[in-house]
Design brief:
The protein is of the alpha/beta class. It has a single domain, classed as Flavodoxin domain (Rossmann fold). Strands 1, 2, 3, 4, 5, 6 and 7 form a seven-stranded mixed β-sheet that branches. Helix 1 crosses helix 7 and helix 2 packs across helix 4. The radius of gyration is 16 Å and the shape is globular. The two termini are 14 Å apart. Keywords: Flavoprotein, FMN, Oxidoreductase. It comes from Occultella glacieicola.
Length: 191
């Protein structure tokens, strides 16, 4: 593959600092490391849904996205690989995360490679990936990497760094997601 692979991370974290952003950054780094190992050039970008919260509300009500929101939506839609991570609130993804995705063109998401991540206060929320995030991206017709990563507060050790078990899952997910994105990109290039 000779072109640069576009990797976009969409984080739905609402706090600052955000463990969801930390997980998103770790997933993005894992994909970048896998790309370096594979000799693949990547263009990395992170979109924070919370930075567009007011614009998302206005676009939802008025139907007119701001230039900044429109550009963020186009980045997500144009990604070869989307890393999508949200905190879990009451068993599901964050409202701002879903509201942002409600504005994404579903046709642009069809066949897109996606790596899923989620964070929560305890391990009891880990099923939110399978109960909420996977169905959302299945609706879009996205191709979802087999390994998704859920991280609870206990998965972040000293200074907010990933524990060895979390780091291993992140690495595996990053490698799988890159392989999926490369396979998808080759298929589209041959079409």
């Amino acid at each position: 593959m000779s072109r640069t692979l576009k990797i976009v991370a969409l984080t739905g974290g609402v706090g600052f600092p955000s463990t969801t952003r930390t997980l998103t950054d770790d997933l993005l780094a894992a994909v970048a490391e896998a790309a370096t190992t594979a000799g693949v050039e990547v263009d990395l970008r992170t979109v924070e849904a919370r930075e567009h919260a007011v614009d998302v509300a206005n676009a939802t009500v008025l139907g007119l996205p701001s230039p900044a929101l429109d550009e963020a939506l186009r980045a997500v839609e144009g990604a070869d690989l989307l890393i999508a991570a949200s905190p879990v609130f009451r068993g599901s993804y964050a409202g701002i995360f879903k509201a942002f995705l409600d504005l994404v063109d579903p046709v642009a998401m069809r066949g897109k490679s996606v790596l899923l991540g989620a964070t929560g206060g305890s391990s009891r929320h880990q099923l939110a990936i399978d109960q909420a995030l996977r169905p959302l991206f299945a609706y879009f017709g996205a191709l979802i990497a087999p390994t998704a990563v859920y991280a609870s507060t206990d998965d972040f050790g000293v200074a907010g760094t990933a524990t060895p078990a979390l780091a291993e899952r992140i690495g595996r997910a990053g490698d799988e997601a890159l392989r999926l994105a490369l396979a998808t990109a080759r298929t589209h290039a041959g079409a």
